[in-house]
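Sample entry was shown:

___
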Amino acid sequence: MKNKIFINDIKFKFHERKLSIENIINDDKFILNLHDIYIKFIECFNNGNKLIFCGNGGSAADCEHIVAEFIVKLSKLRKSLPAISLTSNSSIITAISNDIEYKNIFTRQLEGIAKTNDVLIGISTSGNS
């Protein structure tokens, strides 16, 4: 009985993901928005700028993973692309939190490393951060 409940729960979760993917595939506006983001990233790189990612909690981990894909290779070996995560340096984050204020952990870093026409990407899994 316990295994049956587990199996049904897992199947339900996979079914939810499948529906989400189908909704995305059928949403032309979403796909066009992705295209716009793609173009913005290409322009950023072509102009010698960088992508800067930030997010809290699990989204911080997402930022670091995405940056690793830009720096390392994603799907094929290619030139490293300029990207940075503001969530990666625990010394900076804790110093800003302690010496200034936690709400400034990203803005303070941006003051030091961002330049005009860099692209900032904030990730919030919940949509509330």
